[in-house]
Design a protein that fits this description.
- The protein is an alpha/beta fold.
- It folds into two domains: 308 residues, Rossmann fold (3-Layer(aba) Sandwich), CATH 3.40.50; 34 residues, no CATH class.
- Helices cover 38% and strands 15% of the residues.
- The protein has an eight-stranded mixed beta sheet, with helices on both faces.
- The longest helix is centred in the last third of the chain and has 22 residues.
- InterPro entries: LmbE-like_dom_sf.
- Keywords: Membrane, Signal, Transmembrane, Transmembrane helix.
- This is PIG-L family deacetylase.
Length: 392
């Protein structure tokens, strides 16, 4: 009997020493501090307002727009934008958990031999990697160059240097693994890295998506890939309540930069993304090959997807009404088709189109400049001489 009680006591001690298993963990990987507010709602708001959820935000850049640690405001721009991100999530977290602690605890943590600034508040945690941002993103970005060339890139606060893209991906993976180690599966939300399905977007949005998907290989993540700037052309598909919640989150992010003396982002262009939520679901083939992954949104995983790693359609694009997938409307698909071909001038389709247009143009020139033979003039009939009559 004493031995049985001793064994039970040891078992209770072991169970008590085990960490609590998180109910749900959702990871949001962003290029900038205001990406999830604009493009990944109502998902983010729903996650934050559920006290059983743990929400992890990872930011490649802090949106310094080339100013690095400077700026003309009362505080550096990157700090204002980081404050806006934390302010947004705290507002949503407070809807679920009323807390008297209004302080946002920030500290530097060492992850994969790199110092990263971390903020925690209620059920949300933010990791700011602070890679350098640029002001003119329509040409190229520093992360874009870093992605394609193995050149060292230093963070704007000067505390870390990344020597390769794989090192950055490994750091993102280390954060994800640390935050999801107590759960069997988790959700990853990020912007779509594939230009075919996310055209005309900021390069660092797609770079964040690429880093996130690469970092989650084999981790059994349920991945949602959102569209970014292209949604400005799409019709609104959120309910009035969802649109109000999204507006509140972005307004709080914008207020932080406005209070610090920077440009007002609560304007027409940014407002054009509010009320819109377009995404596709993606399954990591490595996870599918490793084990059987449960269905996503009651949608069975196709068996033929466990092939080579590629960002192809696994499910049709959809929007967030009741979290159901639905095919885009004809207008959206046409806009996406046009925008996609605008960005792919080197494919065979556009080459064929260009050759047809060139051929038609040359044919028109040939027809216009071809010399025409002059019309032969009909000979004018000569007047017949009148016979002369002589009278005797």
């Amino acid at each position: 009997m004493a031995k049985l009680l001793r064994n039970l006591l040891v078992l209770l001690v072991l169970l008590a020493s085990q960490p609590a298993v998180a109910g749900n963990v959702t990871v949001y990987v962003n290029g900038h501090p205001d990406d999830w507010q604009l493009f990944m709602n109502p998902d983010a708001y729903q996650d934050l307002t559920n006290p059983d959820n743990r929400v992890v935000f990872i930011y490649l850049t802090s949106g310094d727009q080339g100013l690095r640690i400077g700026g003309r405001g009362t505080i550096p721009l990157f700090r204002a934008r980081e404050s806006g991100a934390v302010r947004s999530s705290s507002f949503a977290s407070n809807q679920a958990v009323a807390s008297a602690d209004s302080l946002h605890k920030g500290r530097r943590v060492l992850i994969n031999q790199h110092l990263i600034t971390k903020y925690s508040y209620e059920n949300a945690v933010h990791y700011f990697i602070r890679m350098p941002d640029v002001a003119d993103w329509q040409s190229t970005t520093l992360i874009d160059q870093f992605h394609h060339r193995p050149l060292p890139l230093r963070t704007i606060d000067g505390v870390s240097t990344y020597t390769s893209w794989n090192e950055l991906v490994a750091t993102v993976r280390a954060i994800i693994v640390a935050e999801t180690r107590h759960t069997n599966n988790f959700r990853l939300n990020t912007l779509d890295p594939d230009v075919r399905y996310n055209p005309d977007d900021h390069p660092d949005h797609r770079n964040a998506g690429t880093a996130a998907v690469d970092a989650c290989r084999g981790l059994k993540a349920r991945i949602k890939l959102f569209q970014g700037y292209a949604t400005g052309m799409y019709p609104e598909n959120l309910s009035n309540e969802e649109k109000l919640n999204e507006s509140a989150l972005f307004a709080l992010a914008a207020s932080a930069t406005i209070e610090a003396g920077y440009d007002n982002t609560w304007e027409f262009w940014h407002k054009g993304f509010i009320g819109k939520n377009y995404y596709r679901l993606y399954y990591d083939p490595v996870s599918l090959q490793a084990s059987v992954m449960p269905s996503f949104e009651s949608m069975p995983v196709p068996q033929n997807t466990a092939g080579e790693f590629s960002l192809d359609y696994i499910s049709p694009p959809g929007h967030s009404d009741a979290d159901q997938n639905m095919v885009m409307q004809a207008f959206d698909r046409a806009s996406e088709f046009i925008a996609y071909h605008k960005r792919h001038f080197n494919n065979m389709h556009l080459f064929a189109y260009a050759m047809l247009l060139l051929g038609g143009f040359c044919t028109g020139l040939f027809v216009r400049r071809r010399p025409h033979e002059p019309l032969q003039q009909q000979p004018q009939p000569q007047p017949q001489p009148q016979p002369q009559h002589r009278y005797a």
